[in-house]
Amino acid sequence: MTEAWVQEMCRRWARAKLRIWNGGDGKGHEDGWPASSIAGRIREEGEGSGQGPLRQHYAEVMVGEALIVARAIEGMAFGQRLCLHLHYLTKAPVREKAKFVGISPAGYWSLLGVAHGQIAGYVQGLEHADGIARVSQERRNAT
Fold first, then answer.
1. Is-contact 57 30, C-beta < 8 A?
2. Which one, 1, 10, 23, 131, has the greatest CB density within 10 A?
3. What does residue 77 show for φ and ψ, rounded to 5 degrees?
4. Distance between CA 45 and CA 87 in Å, rounded?
5. Domain map of the chain by residue range?
């Protein structure tokens, strides 16, 4: 059984990820991905937009627990990353998600549990490194 605090951290990561993909209001708000094509930059910035570095004109979204989960996911095997993305970023039923991954629904839940366990291990490693507590013990005890 996955700890509730890990699931909550994953939900925070998913909200941040969706906000980056879709913008703050889900309709392409300005804090979504900036235009990366020359045509998009010209439309947004006007003449001379191809010159100078690409700048970030929006607030950082992937912070706190969402950033911790994002960093933990980077070190996972592809199947675990895929399972987390499907589970938290799509609304399809589990049987469809499992079919997409090519495993049974039971295998899907097992893979998701392994991914959650890796996130928990990553967080606990951070807490012990340099004595920095990233997720408070009180929060874990409350769930």
1. yes
2. 10
3. -65, 155
4. 37
5. 4-30+61-142
Q: In this predicted structure, what is the pLDDT of residue 29?
A: 47
Q: Give burial (CB, 10 Å; 0-12/13-18/19+) of 23.
A: middle
Q: Which tens digit of pLDDT belongs to each residue from 94-127? A: 999 999 999 999 999 999 999 999 999 998 888 7
Residue 50 and residue 77: Cα distance in Å, rounded?
37
What the block records as the tokens of 8 is 């909550």
Query: Distance between CA atoms of 126 and 135, rounded to whole angstroms?
Result: 9
Mean pLDDT throughout 47-72?
Answer: 74
Q: How far is the CA of 42 from the CAs of 18, 33, 48, 81, 130, in angstroms?
A: 26, 15, 8, 35, 46
pTM summary value: 0.70
pLDDT at 61: 75
Mean pLDDT, range 76-90, rounded to an integer: 94
Closest of 75, 22, 107, 3 to residue 14, by C-alpha = 22
- The fold for domain 4-30+61-142 equals Arc Repressor Mutant, subunit A (1.10.10)
Residue 134: exposure state from Cβ atoms within 10 A (0-12, 13-18, ≥19) = middle
